[in-house]
Amino acid sequence: MKRIDILSARLQQADYDYIKQVSDSQNFLTERKLIQRIIRLADIRKEDTVLEIGTGKGHLTEAICQRAGKVCSVEIDRKLLESAKKRLSKFENAELIPGDFMRYRLPEKGNYKVFANIPFFLTTQIVEKLTQGKNAPSDMWLVMEKGRQNGSWACLWRRRSLWNLRCGGR
Asked: Taking all residues of the chain, what is their mean pLDDT, rounded to a whole number?
């Protein structure tokens, strides 16, 4: 086997391992009441452009599309993205982007909001990327799993430079 073939195989395995790690650390929001509660808190409006990190199964994306003017949703898992495409096909304001958010270039200009149900193993990296860019989002809504056993969640958000935290249970 040639050295290039071995390196290529190792890179493919590394990509697979990373995607598997993202998939294993995901927590899908599918409960309608919880999604509606979070969306109400976010105050998303028709004039808003929303960048969603992780389309997942599309439940949260669907709720965002019903309120926002434009939604760009980045999903690393191609199977999930294909499934979400079917669910979201009725929305003209949805742009589904295959890829890794950590490699995604944030908008260099213009206002946008970020909404995400983020995988727990990437929380720090995602927050750093969003807060240290040249054009930080005007608002950020990051939903995180707080406790696996009891199904509790935490929503961390920033609105006009103020950070807030709200916790709840399912």
From this structure: 78
In Å, how far from its chain's centre is CA 85? 15
Residue 145 has pLDDT above 90, yes or no: no
Helix/strand/coil for 137: coil
CA 13 to chain centre: 24
Alpha-carbon span 168 to 41, nearest angstrom: 13
This prediction's pTM: 0.75
> What does the alpha-carbon distance between residue 162 and residue 170 come to, in Å, rounded to a whole number?
26
Q: Is 164 helix (H, G, I), strand (E, B) or coil?
A: strand
Task: Report the C-alpha gap between 147 and 108 in whole angstroms.
Answer: 35
Query: How do strand 162-168 and strand 113-117 relate by DSSP bridges?
Result: unpaired
Residue with tokens 């808190």: 41
Are 47 and 72 spatial neighbours (Cβ–Cβ below 8 Å)? no
Q: Which residues contact 77 (CB under 8 A, 6 or more apart)?
A: 19, 22, 23
